């Protein structure tokens, strides 16, 4: 007898890799915005990433496909990071990286709502509904216990970012499914980087520490190039809506890093919401086990 697992082995490792790659940016962004403007941060993350990938796109003869689908690639780039990364850098000047990352965990709920509106809903088991519900309770606990009046506008801005993060995978799944992942990332980061370049030049700081340089490099190479390529593979493996549930797990990683390396407080909201987010992540990404009898 063969027991169908919660996801394929490949899906599991893609999920784990993406959780890490998208769990560390909150720490790195928090460090970087101490010295650089959020707009500079966007340009520094995108344009170098494109320069790394464009030669590979040309070598694989995927440049023509990238150009042909550029309008959707640009839209994806603007929604997924061109605007959100600037807003997130701004938010992290005012709230902790832990709070920022925990709000991002609402992305699967936005994704589910968008799926309902589009009437193209992936199969939802009772287990997955339970996971989404528990994850949502975790976020509500956090906001109710930790967020005060002065932070509400930043929470609202983060929720707007979450909407963009939920729409991005839909564009990938419906408009650019025949375009190679590296071509999408190279095109999107290139255009967004060029658009932000004049702003970055005007706001470039007089001095940048080695710590900031390391943060920007890691954000570009690992958290942009590497993470998006893994993300595309994960969408192919588990679907767009389920892929966004990775935000639950990278939230957990981000919270731990914020507490350990940035001395951010372990608040009551985090203490209650954190384990609920982990439980929600487990159940929301799972499917009901089936017993298949081999004949």
Question: What layout of secondary structure does this protein have?
Answer:
Elements (H helix, E strand, L loop, with lengths): L1 E2 L5 H13 L3 H8 L5 H22 L3 H6 L1 H13 L1 H8 L5 H8 L2 H12 L7 H21 L5 H23 L6 H22 L7 H29 L1 H4 L2 H16 L6 H17 L6 E2 L3
Antiparallel strand pairs: 1-2
Helix pairs in contact: 1-12, 1-14, 2-7, 2-12, 3-6, 3-11, 3-12, 5-10, 5-11, 6-10, 7-14, 8-10, 9-15, 11-12, 14-15
Task: Describe the structure in brief.
The protein has 295 residues and is mostly helical. It has helices spanning 9-21, 25-32, 38-59, 63-68, 70-82, 84-91, 97-104, 107-118, 126-146, 152-174, 181-202, 210-238, 240-243, 246-261, 268-284; strands at 2-3, 291-292.
